[in-house]
Amino acid sequence: MSASQQSQTPLWTTEEPQNHPDSPLSRAFAQPLMLGLFLPLQTGGWSQSTLPRGTDWTFEYNARLTQQAENLGFDVAFGLSQWLPKGGFGGETGYRENFLDPFVSAVALASVTRRILLMGTIHILYGPWHPMHLARFLATADHISGGRFGANIVTGYAENEPRMFGMTRAEHDLRYAQSSEFTQICNALWSGVDNLTYQGQFYALENAYVSPRPRYGRPVLATASGSPAGFDYASRYSDIVFVSSPAGEKLADALPKLPAHVATVKEAAAARGRQVRVIINPTIIVRPTREEAYAYYQSIMDHADLGAIRNFSSRHAAGDSQSWLEHSARGRAVGGHLHIVGSPEEVAEQLRQLHASGIDGIQITFYDYEPELAYFGESVIPLLEQIGLRHPVVPLD
């Protein structure tokens, strides 16, 4: 079948992986509360603090973490994408100076894992990216991983990042319009349109074709946003929507506002006959007792890398992101959109409250990843199973 499309004519949609009962995405969606791991692929991970820890940006370290999370039954793992100058955000830690590419890393992780869903974060509007590239690359990664691969598609809010590519930042909503056309073209190619000819507002193709097809219709698609334009894009194209807290990092402040925040994107998707799952990023600090957990929490903040935090805050303020607007500077020493702190029982209860607000999954960051992930698996996951937020997962051999 050949096709000639004009920009005013919608391109084909393709079968969604969540409509395949045997897909890795359907397996993840069967969990009442999805568990994700936000990988520390960059210097300092997610926390701007000088308190000693073992967290490391290297691939070997992140591969161990991903395997550890997979064996604990985690559903998904992916990393952040940023483009930074020499020294990253500076400070005492050189925060995020070293930065493994999350797309390439996720493909590599497919070779050392068997069950966990892997996502590659991509700024699709930077540089020479074209829908043909992404359609083929993702289809290839889909086959390499056995259908366990997806893309976390971001448009880029920072003013300085596009200049690294010789570009200027487009207006906020126009970026989502371009991303929409980009994704529509990918869907057309994944759906099996032969020799696609298309002339749009942003992209042109002539006799374009991509094969093989992804195993479950198309790769998994995620997006991160807090704006109306971003939520509209997510409601059309994404399976997973990553939101920030609308009220800062304190859970007590966020809980009253999250239901309406989450409902906005879910209702927009439902109006289009689709379902999306909404996830959020908490940093979890769990210790045997509440007192131990809060002492550790305070120690992380007492060792805040103030220089890195100042540079991070200035960069964010210069962008046009509509996320992180209410977060405190000192809270960035800990990182995460929310801070969940306490004993195992208290952490499980806070996650229950978060789920009751409409959140379908958590993409967790830790301060010292390996030991804290292990303790979370040992102490919290069994409690989540007891209260019905997790179905038991058989450990891998």
TrEMBL record:
InterPro entries membership: Luciferase-like_dom, Luciferase-like_sf, SsuD_RutA_monooxygenase
Gene3D superfamilies for this protein: Luciferase-like domain
Chain residue ranges for the region called Disordered: 1-25
Compositionally biased spans, kind Polar residues: 1-16
Database matches in CDD domains: Alkanesulfonate_monoxygenase (cd01094)
Highest classification ranks of the organism: Bacteria, Bacillati, Bacillota, Bacilli, Bacillales
One term of GO molecular function: oxidoreductase activity
EC number: 1.-.-.-
Domain Luciferase-like: 35-360
Originating organism: Cohnella cellulosilytica
Annotated keywords: Flavoprotein, FMN, Monooxygenase, Oxidoreductase
Pfam families named among the record's database cross-references: Bac_luciferase
Record's protein name: LLM class flavin-dependent oxidoreductase
Enzyme class label: oxidoreductase
